[in-house]
Every structure is written in structure tokens, then in C-alpha cells.
Description:
About 0% of the residues lie in helices and about 45% in strands. The protein is mainly β. The strands form 4 sheets. An 8-stranded antiparallel sheet has the order 1-2-19-16-21-15-14-13, with no helix packed on it. A 7-stranded antiparallel sheet has the order 3-4-5-11-6-9-12, with no helix packed on it. It has a 3-stranded antiparallel sheet with strand order 8-7-10, with no helix packed on it. The relative contact order is 0.18. The structure holds (2S)-amino(carbamoylamino)ethanoic acid (UGY) and manganese (II) ion. (2S)-amino(carbamoylamino)ethanoic acid binds next to strand 21.
Amino acid sequence: MTTPYRNDHLSASRGRVGNRYYLMTPDTMVENTLPGLPEYAAVVLAAPQGSPARFGQYLLKLAAGAASALPLGASFENFLIVLEGEVMVASPEEGAEWALGDGGYLFLPEGRSFSLAARTAARLLWVKKRYLAVDGVEAPPVVTGRLSEVAGADDESIDGSWGRLLPGDQRFDLAMNIMRFRGGARFRMVEIHHQEHGLYLLEGGGVYHLDGDHLDVQQDDFIYMAPYCTQAFTATGSGPSAYLLYKDVNRDGF
Ligand code: UGY
Ligand code: MN
């Protein structure tokens, strides 16, 4: 399968590359063939190549019955979440296998590779990162869960709620958070911080303030935000909005 053309108005794409961010809209996403994965199964949403990103994020689209052919993610820590469909994930080093359905997620600490086998047509997000170990701090454990079971805590500063998919303690050097907003919600501050973000819009949409620009964003958009990128969100429309947010955490930026 080659990349289908999804935008007849080529000058009108919302996709945008700024100095400290980029917005990838579905019409700008290109499917790639990566080692061990089926042909054209992966959209590289973020990687160090061409950006300051210190993590990788991939949107994987697997046909029913598709499977990986090589160990994936070896020597990285890896996070997987199924957006749609059902996928079996197995880790030989862990000696375990997980069935992940819609919203099912799995974190594998560094040193555990994994394989994928799609039971149905599936879309999933994969985040990988080199673990930043700290002397005297234990390595993080395997974590598994389901997005619908992640409770959110209200947060006035973002005019919404957010919940952690992973524990927040210092063993973890990354966070995967779910940020939820009702229509009309808006950040009460423009954030500037040393961490970077990979943002995948799961539902709804609005206007994202990024490095002084104001961009329309919609479901299935991806935003990369570099360290110190100004950022704020206003949810538009009457329905709820939600995004999944990668953030490096609990480390001092070295
Ligand atoms: O946790 C965060 O940094 C979050 N409030 N940022 C964001 O949603 N852009
Ligand atoms: Mn932020």
C-alpha cells in the first residue's frame, strides 16, 4: 500500500512546522516501512532525526493477522497504547504476553523487547525512549492498564482534568498523561518548560497556542513541542476534547 492522497487542496493543509514545534495533520502523515514491521505500517510522528526530540513516537496501522518479524524496542523503554482494535504483545525477556484492546496500554522498562500480533485491524501508538537511570533510584516496573480506567483530577490551571497512565514517582523518566477538556475550556497560563511533548489528539479539537502561533487542531492530529515551546490550549465546539500527552519527567534536563 502506498500513501493515499488525502488533501486535494495542497496549499490548505493545517500541517505546519514552526521553530519549536510541528503539527502533523492526518493528510500530512506518510506511512513508512520500518525493520520488523509490515510494509508501510508506521508513521514516524517524532524521532531525533530532524528535530530535538529525545524520544520516538510512531503511529502503527496493522491489518488483521499482521505481526512483527523481529524483536522491537530492544535497549529502549517502550510504551504502547491501542487506539482501535486488538493486539497481542509478547516480551521474551519478561516471559509474558498481553492482549490489548481499545485503550489498553503497556509500559515495558528498558531491556524488554517485544513482538506484536494484530488479532483485528488495529491502530496503536508506540513511544520509545532511552532510559535515564539515576544512581540510587530503582528501575521502573512493567505497567499495564486501560485508558477508560484512568481517573482524572481537576486542574484549574488547564481548565480541565488530567490523569496519569503511569505512576508519577522518580523511577519513571517519562509520563503518559490523558488531558480532558469540556467545550470552551482554556489554559489559564501559557506554559514554558524544559520538557518536551508528543501530543496525540484523541477527541474533539480547538486552538493550540504554540510558540506564538495559533493553530486549529482536530482529532488524530499530532503535535511535537520542543523544550521551552510556549503552549496553551483552548477547546472549541460543544463536545469534550482529550489528548494523550508524552512528557519527559523527574529528571533535571541533562
Ligand atoms: O503537563 C503539561 O505540561 C501539560 N499541561 N502541557 C500541555 O498540555 N501542553
Ligand atoms: Mn506542557
